[in-house]
Amino acid sequence: MFASNTGDTHGDPTTVPPHPCAAWPDNGAGIRETIDRVGDKWSVLVIGILAAGPLRYSALRDQVPGISQRMLTLTVRHLERDGLLTRTVYPAVPPRVEYELTPLGERLRETFYAFVQWATDHNDEIEESRRRYDAR
Fold first, then answer.
1. I need a surface site. Which of 14, 73, 78, 112 has the fewest CB within 10 A?
2. What is the pLDDT of residue 43?
3. What is the mean pLDDT of each run of 10 residues along the chain (136 residues)?
4. Nearest CA to 83 among 103, 110, 56?
5. For residues 70 and 82, what is the distance between their CA atoms, to the nearest angstrom?
């Protein structure tokens, strides 16, 4: 079940688990699409902002720096389609629309926060590595 770096799977202490892509159905098309969707900068920002609670469209737009109305509309539609947020329309004039993370979106938010914490914890190391690389 484990793949070796050398191709030997019989007791080699250097065996490592297979990469996650090895078990993806359909060559991973659906999984790649999901990773592309949730990994784009706008989705990350929208999910992070909605972690504080539901927001109206205009309030969400005001809190996502640099996003156009068109890009926010596309982003929330994709996130709703993927089951990561809900869109609630309240009968009012003008219509009031609110977005909120679903439980699935909240679990993704937890993953994002862990990634952001890793980036924060290792920022000095990464910056130093970049300086060394750029100095070459």
1. 14
2. 93
3. 43 66 76 83 93 95 94 96 95 92 94 87 96 96
4. 103
5. 18
Place of tokens 């927001």: 55
Q: Which residues of 14-35 are buried (b: 16+ CB within 10 A; e: fewer)?
A: ebeeeeeeeeeeeeeeeeeeee
Determine the pLDDT at residue 115: 84
Angle at 47 between CA 41 and CA 92, to 5 degrees: 120
Q: Are 51 and 109 in contact, with CB atoms under 8 Å apart?
A: yes
pLDDT of 79 = 96
Phi-psi region of 72 (alpha: psi -120 to 50; beta: other; left: phi over 0): alpha
Burial of 103: CB neighbours in 10 Å, binned 0-12, 13-18, 19+: exposed
* Packing angle of the helix pair 41-50, 69-81 (nearest 10 deg): 70
